Queue: 2 jobs
Job 1
Amino acid sequence: MSDQNENKNGHEEIGLYEKLASRTADLLEEGKKTFDEALKKAKEELSSAGDFSREQADRLGEYVRRDLKENAGKATEAVKKAIEPHRLAAGAQSAFSRILTSTAETLTELAERSEKSLEYKTGEITSSGTLTCKNCEAEMHMTKTTRIPPCPKCHKTVFRKSY
């Protein structure tokens, strides 16, 4: 593929990403959907309309999810620092509060799901990596695929995995 075609396809996918992110945000602002529900609906709508293939929607959806997760904390802090509530009119403050509350709930739900996906328990089989006890933070370094034992320090059974 020529550089010109690759550049065109890259710009096209960027535009599709922006459409998907924008539609997801619109659905979230309606306040009737969680982030995952809004993203799923946005992907369905845009792929049904022919804007996306199902594969593109899924791939770009993962990018939207990743970017929201990575940037949400930074954005929340920046907004908190930039806005002085006493300077906002009551109506604007109320609207902003609703958006932040909805976003916070969505981010909390997303963080809980993400944390749950990294949770490993005694008796499960895992590949090599480091397991950190969620109770006492002791680390177990697995050098090969093995069944997870209880924590050698506190004997608890729930761990977080890192590689």
Note: The chain has two domains: 3-117, 119-162.
Job 2
Amino acid sequence: MMDDLFMLAALGVLLSVAGALIRAWRGPSRADRMMSAQLIGSGGVGMAVLIAAARSEPAMLDVALVLALLSAFAALAFVKTVTPAGAGDPEADEADAP
């Protein structure tokens, strides 16, 4: 009974991710596309955790952790690309700073 509830919740999260995919495809701006990519990453983490609970597979929790890290790195890469001249670059020399 509880397994079915977890899988039903995972289906609901999957529908949310489908909506985010549409927004990522159509989104009017890059920020909208990035926010939908973040929703896709969060939804993927949620689905992996729900499936791990439903099927008692602890390896799916590892998948969720990796997906969460990839989603965070994607957000950092987006911010890095939209800032002027890579502002906030920790690898830049002091002399290069504005």
Note: The chain has one domain: 2-82.
